[in-house]
Amino acid sequence: MIGVLGELLITAGVLVMLFLGWQLWWNDAIMANEQSDAASEISQDWIEQDRLAQAELEASATAEPEETAETPGATDYGDPIVAAAPGNATAFAVLYVPRFGAEYHRTVAEGTGHDVLNSTRLGIGHYPDTQMPGEVGNFAVAAHRSAYGGGMHLINELQLGDAIYVQTADGYYTYRYRDMEYVDPSVVGVIAPVPNAPDAAAVDRIITLTSCNPLYSTAERIIAYGVFESWQPTSAGAPADLAPIIAAQAAG
Amino acid sequence: MYLALWRVLPGPLWLRILLALLLLVGALYALATWVFPWVDTLVNNQEATVGSP
Hints:
The complex is a heterodimer. By secondary structure, chain A is of the alpha+beta class.
């Protein structure tokens, strides 16, 4: 009788360890793949839609000679287009952070509930009351550090000046990583238009990534800030450093 | 419990080992496919947002 009880307890212990292993590594890897594939699809769709729209434009304006070819990088595209926030759990952007790996790209969707962060197609959630990509203020997003595809697994490895690209249907927004802080989970000031200054009027365009800290724990939050650098429409193509990553997506 | 299971398995030693392994693989498959995803919706041990209760 004692023997059976012992075996049951050992079995229960093994099951708990198996579950954690499944959640943190097995399912994590599967979801990371699925989220990555889904993000590629969305990104390629936007590029294709834009190509079709451009072709249509050119066809309808044949007589009008095109202005001299734009030299990428040298052109100023003016203030970035700011899209309206979509409904909950709707994808509207793809995030690229080369520091997280050349292959790294994830879908950003509206809302930070489990329907976004734990989804096999989404993964990164936009805090609903924060600004959109390119908007003056704070484009704040959240993702898991571990498990569920671990969208921000390597967030602690960001280094000053690292590129953070946000692609939307409208174009590419380049942010540069600036600094990091560790806060209590209750500190909502980090996603304010001016981080940690809720009453200040926003002047800069900030991106804020939030995730868990330490790794495999939820005791604290790790917060990474980036500053807006430039913007270019989809028709202008991706920024030079991002282009090969997007091309690789199209291929595979 | 596991000893009783071992006794129930028929055949020579090699067949019993094979059957035991098959049972183990089947159990793991069932866990990863149905049980763990279900448990995952019940436990909430991973939070990544600020300001959520």
